[in-house]
């Protein structure tokens, strides 16, 4: 563990050195100042605590169904939620589904022991990717039931490399590993890890619940006016360049675009480039109206998952950059989904393509071909839309599988 502890120490030092010049690093450092003392002030002795850790916002969304079901089914437990990244903590620090939300103290032996002495969790749950070796070793030493959920393993990851022995040993710390697919279970079996359950991905439960409780959005409802709309979510500039061309080629189709970032210049440029006219969500209904325009730009956050419910076609942004955003939020509403070429590392995107619900495109011509094909063939459209909805419905249920195994036979605290 000497090399691992040295790496953790070097990382922490680098973050502290970067803090004066980098906002994310600054928040990482400031958020951890006095952290253990603040924890000691709020966690009372004798509390029955379930500790859930997520690296960042994406992992939180995977863990959220578990958190909310524990809150509802097992109210005798207090829930501590920790984040590693500022991008997760800053967005969800006031999340009321947990009793406490904190940063995770750095994974040093001293921090780990003090953290666990304060919290004394009855159960520890890690979400998807987090493998902190000192935490896992100490949890195992204290015989605290420890789980990882929605995990997915690839043959190229450190666990299956000759130099990954410390990480392979850490896997034995888990009471059970809940993985997304059978391929992950087979890889783990190959290195002697057999306390594995193929439970699936809790994100399917999350998007299903969101869809079941989707918000009514009067602005979007009025804009769509009972017709069909093309919704593009989490878009970046390369996505928007293609979409503008598609809008101008289809003046009779309503388009709703939710940029991933509220870049004022990009929003202004997009509104100006659409020949059918456009309006911002936050300005809809003002003097220039809105219902007669072709484009509605969602220039606010927190409503995209409900906006998808008004769509008949969906475009998921990010595929011309580091990778696509959440395809399931759109697919759950039963509509064809399209995205850019950077999708291979997302299992659900590959499977949506395989079942005929989605397509990946690399150019405007491919986007136009996909869209024109769906418009010209009602049978083709219905098959893709049905496949999308069926795919999400068929993969729900991971949360129940996980909680049933974690809490089976546990005595009331």
Produce a short descriptive summary.
With 413 residues, the chain is α/β, with parallel strands linked by helices. Helices cover 46% and strands 15% of the residues.
Descriptive notes:
This protein has 413 residues and is of the alpha/beta class. It has 2 domains: 2-200 and 397-407, 3-Layer(aba) Sandwich (Rossmann fold), CATH 3.40.50; 209-394, Rossmann fold (3-Layer(aba) Sandwich), CATH 3.40.50.2000. It has 19 helices and 14 strands. The protein has a 7-stranded parallel sheet with strand order 3-2-1-4-5-6-7, with helices on both faces. Helix 4 links the parallel strand 1 (49-54) and strand 2 (78-83). It starts with a helix and ends in a 6-residue tail after the last helix.
């Amino acid at each position: 563990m000497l090399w691992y502890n040295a790496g953790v120490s070097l990382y922490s030092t680098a973050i502290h050195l970067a803090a004066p010049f980098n906002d994310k690093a600054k928040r990482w450092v400031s958020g951890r100042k006095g952290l253990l003392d603040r924890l000691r002030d709020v966690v009372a002795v004798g509390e029955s605590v379930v500790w859930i850790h997520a690296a960042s916002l994406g992992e939180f969304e995977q863990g959220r169904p578990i958190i909310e079901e524990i809150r509802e089914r097992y109210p005798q437990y207090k829930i501590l939620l920790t984040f590693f990244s500022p991008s997760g903590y800053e967005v969800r620090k006031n999340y009321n589904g947990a009793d406490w939300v904190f940063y995770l103290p750095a994974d040093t032996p001293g921090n780990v022991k003090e953290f666990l002495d304060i919290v004394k969790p009855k159960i520890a749950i890690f979400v998807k990717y987090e493998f902190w070796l000192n935490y896992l070793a100490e949890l195992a030493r204290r015989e605290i039931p420890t789980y990882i959920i929605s995990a997915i393993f690839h043959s190229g990851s450190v666990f299956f490399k000759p130099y990954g022995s410390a990480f392979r040993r850490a896997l034995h710390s888990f009471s059970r590993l809940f993985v997304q697919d059978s391929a992950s279970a087979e890889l783990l079996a190959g290195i002697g890890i057999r306390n594995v359950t193929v439970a699936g991905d809790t994100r399917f439960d999350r998007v299903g619940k969101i869809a079941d409780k989707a918000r009514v959005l009067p602005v979007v409802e009025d804009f769509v006016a009972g017709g069909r709309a093309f919704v593009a979510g989490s878009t970046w500039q390369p996505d928007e360049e293609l979409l503008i061309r598609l809008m101008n080629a289809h003046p009779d189709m309503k388009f709703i675009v939710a940029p991933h970032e509220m870049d004022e210049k990009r929003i202004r440029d997009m509104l100006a480039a659409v020949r059918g006219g456009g309006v911002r969500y936050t300005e809809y209904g003002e003097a220039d109206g809105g219902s007669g325009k072709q484009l509605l730009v969602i220039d606010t956050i927190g409503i995209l998952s409900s906006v998808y419910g008004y769509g008949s076609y969906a475009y998921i942004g990010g595929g011309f950059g580091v990778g696509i955003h959440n395809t399931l939020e759109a697919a759950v509403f039963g509509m064809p989904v399209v995205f850019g070429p950077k999708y291979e590392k997302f299992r659900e995107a590959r499977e949506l393509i395989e079942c005929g619900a989605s397509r990946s495109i690399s150019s405007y011509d491919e986007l136009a071909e996909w869209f024109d094909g769906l418009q010209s063939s009602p049978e083709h459209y219905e098959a893709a839309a049905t496949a999308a909805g069926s795919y999400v419905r068929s993969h729900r249920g991971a949360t129940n599988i996980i909680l049933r195994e974690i809490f089976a036979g546990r005595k009331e605290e």
